[in-house]
Amino acid sequence: MIAPNLMYLDRLRSTWKRALAITLGVALTSAIIVSWADGGGFGEQLLYQLIVSFCVGSLFWLGSTAVRSYTKGMRTTARWAVRIAGAAVLLNVGISIGLAVLALLGVFPWAFYWDMVRSSVVPTTVIGLICFVGFAMYESLKYRAQYETAQARLSSLESRLRPHFLFNTLNSIMALIPEDPKAAERVTERLAALLRYSLDSTGYSTVPLEQEVKVATDYLEIEKTRFGDRLHYSIDVPRYLMQEEVPPFSLQTLIENSVKYGGGEIRVSVSNGNGRL
Question: Alpha-carbon distance 7 to 150, whole Å?
Answer without folding.
Answer: 22
